[in-house]
Amino acid sequence: MEKVRRNKIAICLFMFPAVVLFATIIIIPIFMSSYYSLLDWDGITKGIFVGLDNFKELFTSKSAGFPKTIGNAMLLAVLSTFIQLPISLFFAIILGKGVKGEKFYVAVFFIPVLISTTVIGQLWLKIYNPDYGIVNAGLRFLGLDNLTHVWLGEQDTALFAVFIPILWQYVGYHMLLMYAGVKSISPDLREAAKIDGATEWGIARFITIPLLKPIIRICVIFAVTGSLKAFDLIYVLTNGGPAHASEVPSTLMVSMIFGRNRYGFGSAIAIMIIFLCFFFAVLIRKLFRTEEVD
Amino acid sequence: MKKNLKKLLVILISTTMVLSFSACGNKKTDKAKDVGNNAAAEGAADAKKEEIQLTLWSIATESDAFNNAYTKAIADYEAAHPGIKITHETFENESYKTKIKSSVAANELPDLFYTWGGGFSKSFVESGKVLPLDQYYTDEFKAQLSTAALNNATYDGKLYGSTYTTPVSALFYNKAMFDKYSLKAPTTWDEFKTVCQTFLDNGITPIGSSVKDTWVLAMTHDALTLKSAGPEKTANAVTKNGVSYNDLDFLASAEKIKELVDMGAFIEGATGLSNDEASANFYNGTVPMYITGSWMGGSILTDAPNPDDFDVAPIPVINSANAKITDFMGGAADTIMVSNGTKYPDVAGNAVFELTKSISKYAYLDGAGIAAWQVDYDDSAVNPITKKVAEYASNATSFTLWFDTLMDANEAGEYLALLQELYIGNLTPEEFVEAMAAQLED
């Protein structure tokens, strides 16, 4: 084994397939997008080089409304981190402790992640339907007619109506990550704490959560970058509407590129999404590291 | 050793299976060829020539109203031209828009492809990847398909495609519900408003529409604009031909939309409903009116429980000084073009006209579309609503293509976005008209 590791040719040989895949699928397209983002290009005819004009337009054009989409994505990131992850953590700790039917619950919570997002979108479209949807029907049944809304069709409610299924869908995903983390903590620690008279809350607070920190860090990174990239459910439910109320960067990008033939401008949005994802991934790592030093 | 033997056995068995399967396949194709050859020998002299394969892309998927017409037209064509085979590949409408654009960019166009005339295909033609068809548009075809219908497939004076249907916007209404309140199809804006008010007074929402699928609302707005500003002015403003959109006639139609919104004339939740959901409310008799394209005539037959309840009328006139009741929004946008990269330009150039002619006939007989080609066959079986729209179309004094087809993709996207904001109330009619003028200026 040692010999193989020292053999440079072997290293290159074994690395080669992975490097080729990584380069052709990730690195090269990123560089191509960066180049496209400097063009005024309809995707078909020859593009015109315009420098940073697309990026300037991103932040100045009122009709495109890019800053607002960033705001929406940030809001989703905050909600994911502070609402979705605590719920996931709660379930993970409860289930990790060993509950009757543990495997069953893990499977149930994970089901939304497995179902196709389009299917989930259709389900929620029915739930939100102003006419026969369960939300409005329930409100009417309770006599709260004045609280009924066209949930996906009103500017004030559309954004949150779209966020709720997104948050709900990925609770199971983060729960599974954390559950695996909880399971990998040695039971001796728990038992020792119990003998010393620690409460369940105390065990969670001072043993489980601190030991879960690396996993939580990963979850936060996934949640934040996932929010910045969020696309599928929003596309199915509102397609960014009404009047950009639930627009996020990726839906704006798709409508610019494929709806309006603006490949250059769309590529600029793509570059911004990539940049923000990297930025936050690094930032979150830093934050967790400084905490560890403390 | 034993393991190895087993492996060898498995490999041997699977190879034999694969080989025998492929042998079966060969036999079958041989047989098919024989049959084809026989038929060809009977039909034409040039049967010995190798078979010509053309590929046609369209959006006539199996659930599409035009699917039957395409299938029959292709069968007719293949029967008339032995030795030519057309492979028909279909795609879903929205994804096709992406597919066709990327195919143009990647030089992967099939011989014949469906596309939309006007602004949508402009860049395709400019890229030089579409075959000009002037030499194939013979006098025989000219007699049956007017040059006016091909207006949207003509770029820079050259013809690049052929069409089979001239859809128009119309006001579809539920006659049974109208009769109940002794109402008549409106011909002027005032009558239209009275109709709306009468339904509202009786607790019925009068108009079905979808703002989520903004093109449906655009159908209403386009038609009202045409009936306010008239065909020439509208077309000139939208195509940036020296007329500013910031004009009282255009303001009038935006104000009418606002009026209808304010009086609650549009179905509740239109901002969140798709076209399918909204039109379902029309078919089942919840709302009495729906402004959309003539294709609804065919859908009423299949989707409404009581198709006899429904009728159709032209869009009411807002300003009779500019527009007539016989001015129509619509025209031939459905186009089939030929790729410049085709191996058989002469065959494909002729096929595009023969195919569109047959599709025109079968689609009309199915009630799927209004025939663009001359009707020289018995059409008594066509459903009454489609027939009525066809009559309107044949007596039309003008056709103006829908805004979002007339404009290029970016302007169309902006138009639909602005229209949505107008509906929701983020923009006043004045601001809407100004924003439209501004986006059409540069």
Automatic annotation (TrEMBL), chain A:
<comment type="similarity">
    <text>Belongs to the binding-protein-dependent transport system permease family.</text>
</comment>
<dbReference type="GO" id="GO:0055085">
    <property type="term" value="P:transmembrane transport"/>
</dbReference>
<keyword id="KW-1133">Transmembrane helix</keyword>
<dbReference type="InterPro" id="IPR050809">
    <property type="entry name" value="UgpAE/MalFG_permease"/>
</dbReference>
<feature type="transmembrane region" description="Helical">
    <location>
        <begin position="73"/>
        <end position="95"/>
    </location>
</feature>
<feature type="transmembrane region" description="Helical">
    <location>
        <begin position="263"/>
        <end position="284"/>
    </location>
</feature>
<feature type="domain" description="ABC transmembrane type-1">
    <location>
        <begin position="70"/>
        <end position="284"/>
    </location>
</feature>
<dbReference type="GO" id="GO:0005886">
    <property type="term" value="C:plasma membrane"/>
</dbReference>
<dbReference type="InterPro" id="IPR035906">
    <property type="entry name" value="MetI-like_sf"/>
</dbReference>
<feature type="transmembrane region" description="Helical">
    <location>
        <begin position="158"/>
        <end position="180"/>
    </location>
</feature>
<feature type="transmembrane region" description="Helical">
    <location>
        <begin position="104"/>
        <end position="125"/>
    </location>
</feature>
<dbReference type="InterPro" id="IPR000515">
    <property type="entry name" value="MetI-like"/>
</dbReference>
<dbReference type="Pfam" id="PF00528">
    <property type="entry name" value="BPD_transp_1"/>
</dbReference>
<keyword id="KW-0472">Membrane</keyword>
<keyword id="KW-0813">Transport</keyword>
<protein>
    <submittedName>
        <fullName>Carbohydrate ABC transporter membrane protein 1, CUT1 family</fullName>
    </submittedName>
</protein>
<feature type="transmembrane region" description="Helical">
    <location>
        <begin position="12"/>
        <end position="32"/>
    </location>
</feature>
<keyword id="KW-1003">Cell membrane</keyword>
<keyword id="KW-0812">Transmembrane</keyword>
From TrEMBL, chain B:
<keyword id="KW-0813">Transport</keyword>
<feature type="signal peptide">
    <location>
        <begin position="1"/>
        <end position="22"/>
    </location>
</feature>
<dbReference type="InterPro" id="IPR006059">
    <property type="entry name" value="SBP"/>
</dbReference>
<protein>
    <submittedName>
        <fullName>Carbohydrate ABC transporter substrate-binding protein, CUT1 family</fullName>
    </submittedName>
</protein>
<comment type="similarity">
    <text>Belongs to the bacterial solute-binding protein 1 family.</text>
</comment>
<keyword id="KW-0732">Signal</keyword>
<dbReference type="InterPro" id="IPR050490">
    <property type="entry name" value="Bact_solute-bd_prot1"/>
</dbReference>
<dbReference type="Pfam" id="PF01547">
    <property type="entry name" value="SBP_bac_1"/>
</dbReference>
